Records
---
Amino acid sequence: MISILEFLARLAVWLFLAPLLPGVINKVKAWVAGRRGPPVLQLYYDLARLWHKGVVVSTFASPGFIAGPAVAWVAVLAAALLLPLGPLGTSLSFRGDVILLIYLLALARFCTAWAALETGSAFEGMGAAREVSYAVLAEAAVITAVLTLSMQSGSVSLSAMLTPSVGPGAVLLAVGLFAVLLAENCRVPFDDPNTHLELTMIHEVMVLDHSGPPLAAVLHGAAMKLLLFSVLLVQAVLPIGELSVAAASGAMIGGVLLVTVAVGFTESLTARVAFRRVPLLLTTAFLLCVFALLIAWKGGAA
Amino acid sequence: MMMDWLIAGAVIMLVAAALSGARFPRVWLALTLAGTATLLATAFWTLGGGAEWDWRSSFAVGGERIHLRLDALSAWFLALVAVVGGGGAVYARGYWPDCEHPASAGRGRTWWSMLVLCMSLVLLCANGLHFLMAWEAFALSAFFLITLERERRETRAAGWLYLAASHAGTLGLFAFFSLLATKTGSWELGPMRDHAELAPLFWVALFGFGVKAGMFPLHIWLPSAHANAPSHVSAIMSGVAIKMGLYGLVRFSGWLPLPAGAGWVVLALGAVSAVLGAAFALAQNDLKRLLAYCSVENMGVILIGLGVALLGTANGDTAWGRLAMAGALLHVWNHGAFKALLFFGAGSVLHATGTREMSRLGGLWRAMPWTASLFAFGSAAISALPPLNGFVSEWLVYLGLFDAAASHTRVAVAIVPATIALGVTGALALAGFVKASAVVFLGAPRTQVAVHAHECGWWMRAPMLALAGICACLALAPAAVWPFISRVLVGWRSAWSGGKPPASLITLGYTHLALAASLTVAAIALWFRSRTNGVRRALTWDCGYALPTARMQYTGGSFAALASGWFGWVLRPERRLHWPRGPFPRQADFVERIPETVLERVIGPVGDAVMVASAWVRQRQQGSLPDYILYLVAALAAMGALVLFGSI
Amino acid sequence: MNDWLNLLIGLAMGLNLVALGTSRLPSLIRVAALQGMVLGIMPLVIEHELRLLAVAVAIATVAIKGLVIPALLRRAMRTANIDRDLHPLIGFLPSLLLGAAGMIGAVVLASRLPLLPEHHESLLVAGSLASVLAGLLLLIGRSKAISQVCGYLILENGIYLFGLLLIHSVPLLVEGGILLDLTVAVFVTGIIVDRIQRAFDSLDTRKLTVLRE
Amino acid sequence: MKELLLIIVPLVAAALAALWPNNRTRPWFLPVAALMHTLLSFGLLLYPPEAPFHAWFGYDPLARAMLPAVSLLFLGCAAYGVPYLQLRSERSNRVFVPAFLAALGLMSAAHMARHLGLLWIATEAVTLSSVPLLHFNNTPRAFEATWKYLLVGGTGIALSLLGSFCLGYASLHGGGTGDLTFAGLVAQGASLSRPWVLIAWVLLLVGYGTKMGLAPMHTWKPDAYGEASGIVGAMLAGGVTTVAFTAVLRVRAVVEAAGAGVVANRTLLVIGLFSMLVAALFLLSARDFKRMLAYSSVEHMGILSFGAALGGAGLWAAFFHVWNNSMTKGALFLSAGNIRRAAGGRTVDEVSGMSVITPRSAALFVMGLFAVTACPPFGPFFSELLIVKSAFGTGHGWAAAFFLGCLLLAFFGLTRVVFAIVYGRPRQAAREMDPKFRETLAVIVPPVLLLLLSLWLGLFTPEVLRQSWTAAVQQLSPTP
């Protein structure tokens, strides 16, 4: 009973807090640009509106066009639920759940790309191609980061392995994971969520033809993914394991906000790089994780 | 006793099937199915804890008494042979019927039963001589199956390449088995871990079996053979036949003492095969070639598991080695199932449209919904996406890798790169299969053939459904097969007493169940929500472009261009591009060809060198009698010199 | 009697050189025939008591090598109306020098080989080796089928010479061998001649190269 | 003296055939005589007669291990010969049939000859008797082939005569009394004068090697096999070569007894591997499928001498391989003959798609191909595997690797040519060629039987054969 309630609470946290982050980011960007900008809760309004809108489906599209976003959304949610929330821990934890998390995100990617290709639009094909291709490099970085964590902790389950080491390793890991976060969530400098030049977009261009509830699922899923990565990043580098519950939760929330603000600042201070330089950035992130790994390895050996 | 009868029955039925194949399709089908079913029964009897079956003939064949044995390891592969063998037989009835292939259908049936029989015998033989016989017979029947459509030049070329490569491997096995026989003094096979001097033989076996297993530098025969063979043949070749090479490796790495570097080398080969196989697969434009290269990739995954296991045994039978081995074994089944499924799917596409060229297809889901959904299912499974079976086996391998890395021993030097390679492979495979299924089945039909496609019949659909069902079972109840796996593990390394399935595996099973359920629910829910809100069909918006044509869609080539560009150093794509010129450009075209790098850049030159030598020798024999007498004198002199310096 | 023998052998060796040196087919044929006859009478020189078979063999040799084969070859030569081997594969001077070198080598080798006492001062081994070499040289160096036949004949003469070493101990082997060898010679010649009769072909071996790789 | 019948029967048959007036019925002499010969040789195989120590002819273990194979092959060829010669009724076979039969008798003589000189005489006689066979077609090509066969082979034969003389002289010099039976020579053993023995060995190896067709003395082979008809080719490849191999083995025994066995083995090993390499290189770019068979035969001669060089188990495997080689080569040559008849052409440029025109012969040809390239379950697989095994066993690891490499190259070449001829689209021209030819049972059954024999030999080698080979090995190298 308790467990069920706790599970529902956890679900609620993920479902309802996630859309906050894009709002915060946009606020920060607006503030830097000296505008008032949209309200923080803007995404909530959009989602609500979309949920009641009708759907326009391409004549080429198969039922997969609707199923794709749904599956992707569930996949991200499931991945999120695997992630422990600092002191609250996690409701489901087993050896190797971290691999399941990574591959759930892959499932989400598969479905988004699939849905994008349903329409036969050249633009969306382009977006899908970029998404899956850059994921190859991002995947390497993520695996390395996870390998680092598991080497530090000697464990393969998220609840145990998020015990960061203080020192240069943590810093390297933090920077690397932050880069991965930007890439995976299609933020500047990898992608520009609110450009209007389709040729230069990755994620946004994939969902061009979505509308109504499916689009809502896509947007909400993206928000959850962002939250997921920031939570992961925070727990990977902040040693909040040994703090008291209250302090820990505080640190968590603070950390997540910090990450969000950082994203906002990056977006407003840097420009999107040319596509041919994206691999370079991702490789850099990968190398950062590799160095972190080496440090962790030495640490473990010593 | 019962086992004797069962296996004898299976063999007799398959032989009878081979004999009846030419004339009586129905009888053949019945016999083949009965035979494979019997084999399956024996396999599961053994896997389910039945005593190891061991039988010696009273008579001798080729100077040796026949010695058959069925232990858990053989049974594990035998089950795969039986399943795909039976399924393919059913599929062939719809895919390669007499009415469409009067010349070759009967031949195809005969050799099919022969192939299944010989592969089973390879798994059963416990005598080097008979193992070799069964091995070569299996290779030959595979050759005749590949060249069923021998009128086509490229089919003949592919068949010859396969035969040549496989014979090279077989000669390697000649050396392997005769060395074994000379060192142990008999052709009998069995555990011989105590003969330390046998360790170097592992390298010979690695070559001999590696050719068949299609691991990376030795995979040259695989793509063209799989692409040009009839699809049910490609299915059994890729799903089962290459596993025979793997069986040899597993079998003899279990029986022989191992050289120091074995684990490292196998791990490295596995990593290379996995990454490059996936990269090549992504770059292909021919649907079946793509699937073929993906087999290289999956063999790589399995070899990674095997390599980790070998490292584990070298470091005192560690638990992580065991996990990785379990993953590898499970992946053997998984890959067998979904690769066969995918080739069947590709076959029905080929059957419906007559082309394997992906850039000529597209939008097939409307014409062939069954095939489309089954192919999509297979693609998701082979991309190791949860909650499907491909993920379970890769997950086990990952666990092994992570634990090994966490063990902080020096093996981590090899483990860490392998882990990263496996991750990259996963992402590449995903890209490849998004490309394959989307370009073929989604969007708008690119050519007329794609427009006029038709769904395949039940003969072809049923086996696909069965295989998909097997995948689903393996995905949702992985813990159920653990007892089998643990028996195989004990057979491979007696130190590894099987024991219970790891708790996390059971949890993963439940998670998969929950996940599958919620995925379905969510999809349906969203569908209904959209229905209630009202669904309007409209042209793809496509940024407001008014007249989209099918030719404007993203092609497979352009889809893969970005990622395969990073592997240009090994893919070496050959591009021919005519830019559109002038104010009213006439024609502009772009042709891209992905060469078989190893074959064309490595084997080719060597072959040319040999042919130069051959031409030189031919030049020496131009029919002039005096020259011939001169050679006689030269031989006299040479032999004289040899004797002179020999006798001193 | 050994010096008689050696005289004849020396003559045969000289004939080898002549054969190697000459470009005219008639003289080549004549040389081969002469050598054959010289060798044919040798057994009679060696033998202490004249056995019937030995005499028969000697007569056969002389008859066939000295008369039959040369006659056949001459007829063939006339029908094909060639009388020179103008374009030898190995020039006449080189082959002459090679032959001489071979002869010296043969003598040296013969002197180093272990021989039975009664053969010590006989030239048999040296002569046979020299003739074998000369024959091979002709076979390799000449372009006309007829001259190659002559080369083959000289090769046989060399072997025959060696056989004389054994004629006391194993007469049957030697004589049988010699006779059969003669038949080969006859065969070779016969085929050539038959061919030439029918095709009026000069049988330049450079033309006999249809069968090739 | 029953064994002398093996020589007499065919020769008498030859004489009768020469006198026989009727051109159409004369070919029947072949199967009849062959059948008698086969029965006789197998009877003697089962109930071996005593071979007296100094007998000049004797059905000794070596003959017993080899001769039945030859007579089986001859039986096959003879059975095929009847329809073949009736097909070629435009040419008189008054010479062909007697010569063919005489060849059989002389081959038996050569196999059974236990005397140095007699062996040489028999071998030479075989050569001569096969000349008319080669010349049967009486075309300029046939003439050229015959001429080369005669002159190259003749030179080789002359050299081996010289070698025999040298061996004889070696025995004289060692105080021999002129007893040139092999038994006597072996008994003389170490007292033979070593230099002369070595010279004799070189001359005899090259001489008889020329008849075997070891490279580089193989040059007559492709011409002869290419021009001869199928049965003659089969006979040359499976019979005459065997005779020469027997001769080499007999001489080798003497050399070994004289204490130069190691040297002899080294030369055999080198020339065997060299032959395999050369043959493989030729096969790689072969275009004419009858010449291809010749090179394959060169390769197998190389295999034989490689096996013989290994001694012991290798020699045993070589005997095994002699049988397999005879059977498979027979099947290949006869089916190739059918294809040649039906297709009219002989190179891959002229012939293709024979699986459509002559399905049975084509299937046979392919099966024969796999048999001859050591694919199980045919006999050669077992013998070659045993040779490899004994090579590894005697520490010739690298030689074995080289051996396998040559096998691989040869496999490439053979498969390339055969598939090009059998598969693919049939040339239109080939359809009209030689309407006289039909794939009757008479031309299919003999090769099928030979192939089945090779299969049976491999799978269920009869005990009597095994122990006959063991006995032959014992005879040749009594010191184990």
---
Amino acid sequence: MFDRRWIYLLVALAVIFPLIVPATFKVHITPEARQLFDAIEALPDSSIVMLTFDYYPSTLAETEPISVAALHHLFRKDCRVLTMTTIPLGGPSIAERVTRALAKEHGKVYGVDYVNLGFKYNYVAVLKGMGTSIEAIYPMDNSSTPLSELPMMESIRNYDDISFIFVVSDNAIVDYWISIVNAEYATPVGIGVTAVSAPKYYAFISSGQVTGLLGGMKGAAEYERLVKAEGMALKGMAMQSLVHLLIIALVIIGNIGFFASRRARRRATA
Amino acid sequence: MSGIEILQIWVAAFFTLAIFSFLYKDNPFFKLAEHVFAGLSAGYYVGLVWKSIILQQLWYPMMAGEWLLVFPAMLGALMFARLVPKISWVSRVSLAFVMGTTAGVFLVSQLNGMILPQMQATMLPLVLSEGAGATLMALVMVIGVISTLIYFYFSKEHTGALGVTAKVGVWFIMIAFGAHFGYTVMARVSLLIGRVNFLYEDWLGTFLLIF
Amino acid sequence: MRRVAPVIIAFLSGFVTVISFCFNPDKTVLGGIEPRVLSWVTIVGGFTLLLGVVSITRVNWQAVHRKKEGWPYKFLTLVAMYVMAVPAMLPSSWSPLFGDAEGSIYDWLFMHIDAPMMGTMFAMLAFYIASAAYRAFRARNPESTLLLAAAVLVMLWRVPMGEAFLRLFGENVPGFINTYLMNGVNAAVQRGIVIGAALGAASMSLRIMLGIERTYMGKG
Amino acid sequence: MHRLPLKLSLVAAYNLVLLILGSEPALAQTTVDSVFRWDRLNAMILLVVFSVVILLYIKWAKEGKPLFLRKIPGLEAVEEAVGRATEMGRPVLFIPGIQELDEIETIAGVSILGRVAKITAQYETPLMVPVRYPLVLAAGQEVVEQAYTEMGKHDAYSKDMVRYVAGEQFAFAATVNGIMVRERPAANIFMGVFAAESLLLAETGNAAGSIQIAGTARPEQLPFFIAACDYTLMGEELYAASAYLSHEPLMLGGLKGQDLIKILIVIFIVVGVILVTLGIGDTFYGWFDLGN
């Protein structure tokens, strides 16, 4: 068997090639992405939507495009956006960076159109506690401003005041948004997750516990197309395609080798 | 681009490449990155707990007159008893408080939020007016859920009817895992694209500025 | 005392949340207690993170002190930890380098060293997946054949180039994969696993609450 | 403790009576202003039935009633792997997952570690157990020490067998990868919670030529272990394996109780499907509505 490092080299080439020779592809919209888009589209203007940044900087490439596309959609619809994160490592700073950049683009004002709550330890207690009072869990926003000083927070007490929760996550925290928040407070939850965890959540779509699902970079690309704001995800589809095809080719070659050697062995024993 | 920005990019690029170098083989650069990584991530937690818990949830509210917070502060401090073997049992009190509360939340949320709705969603009519496609979907769902549950049933040997159902369960499980694998490939490749983009656009970009 | 006190506390604190589930928060005393208990848990839980730091310091310092093999690396770990942690705990009013805002040492180290390394570790998986797929994905028996076929179909379906290829076999093929493979077989199995896992987690929680599961406390 | 199930069943019976007496209004109306959450009665009944069943089985297991568990394929693989390591004179690497001891999978992993340690003690094969959390460290050391003492090999035990490694997930994975290439264990056993590092560990181990056995309940990581390891315990097989090996009444009783509930769930689903198909299932279906 040859050195596996040749395979590594092929993978690297498959990613680098489209950087040098860019190409764009038509992305088809899946029903799950459409469902999420429609749910937000159907909200009355200036509704309050919670957008979570439940991901580590290490999965930025998959998740950040989802947050960006979501914010484009929410700001364009004049929704008031409340962000929070259950991730200690980087969650708060990503939320600040992304919301501030997008707010600037759409001319939104901090404290009036959007608020970043930041991070608190122990997600179970946080998710549950916000059902009674957001202020009890987050006395201050991410920049240590008391919530009482932020005009937007005047009308927000708990989940009852939130029309939709858009969870963007790279881990199993989604389970608790479903089993605690959606189940006990009935706030609709739409999710954008990494491709690793996406398959699991198909089970929650038909049960109605989840309203719409975006899976990984492809999901992000679909949402980018839906809100007509081309970003990183649509650009990444070329590299994504090449590496997938490479891996499929490797599987096929591996199996041809496997069957050839098995036949040779059978012949030798016969 | 300022000098400090270029430096930032170079530092990030150095550590990115140091980690990637492990693909070729283990080497001192990887070891260096590995150990710096371990230290930084531990240090990150300290800063985080300090700001979001000690200051924001404990110190500021206590200064504002919430004296009841003395109790969680004490419980938290008791955790450190673990470091002194003789009184380490005291830390169990704090631990029990954390574990007990979490257990209570879990007990309810798993039974109420997971099992009931997932059971209900499986009770699908097998004869549907919407046509053969919908009926087939319902059948796949019902058989899939039941055979998966049966595969993970340990109280009887998997023989006879139980064995057949469990076998169907394995087939379903393998297809689902295959789908999962295919989906995950996408995730990992996306992250590689992220890093390669950084090296190609940001890092190589600095070469144009420097040279 | 050593055994009984923790068990009683675990029971009471769990009981509060279970009982609050059964009653209306606005109508009973319990409603006011639950959020308080939950916010206390976040505080107490935070201290366990600090405990981990103490352990890391101890373990690495011992290695450095005794000049064990590779001790300079362990020393580096310690330095990295304290360079990150100490400035973060100093008030930002002293210097913009302190605290955790943008421009602080803490934020800089995180954004430009820690985060890129985390991303790179994930990215390495793309290489490993490729080699694992080549080496391990063999149609040895019916089970592995199903695994392999499903994996290849989904890999094709998730990217535009592959989807275009699938459409050559019929305009509905991608939709078919979405419906029957993802929302059908996959969702059914995930549901079976979710139910099983929920039972496991609930049974564990019950045992912890009632104090019959005490592994987390350690023995003695 | 053993009186508890009785009391709980009384409560269950009472609730059932309540349900029958007031079935329609109790479940249908959203009683925002009543003190008791009647709309959540279904979850409460499930909670009670579940608790009674689990506690009864644990009680029976403690009393030593024979409770049958089917053989878990793949458990022999663990013994074989340790045997191979002994022949090759190389160490065994055991990783009880990357989560704290409050995860049921970690507890299962630690109890399997006890079994593995007995075999390594018997053959005096070196054992390495890197862990990520202080509590797992304490529990791991205790379990391994006990195993060596039981096998009469206390002299061969060293506290460094179970060692504390860095905090962050990937920092931990990087360190373990380092151990795999530098110390070249003959067998790698992964039992517990694993996340994205599953394939990092399993591929590195495979490249280093180790035999690998994995067990985790995380469905998203199972495909990788299946692809890169020689044997994989899937999902609840992990719990079953640890109950099977340890015969610990808590594990065994819990598992048996869950098994019974699982069968009840299957029966309810089948009944539901039949009723709904016949078009008379609305009431039954409504019993599973969540109150919120």
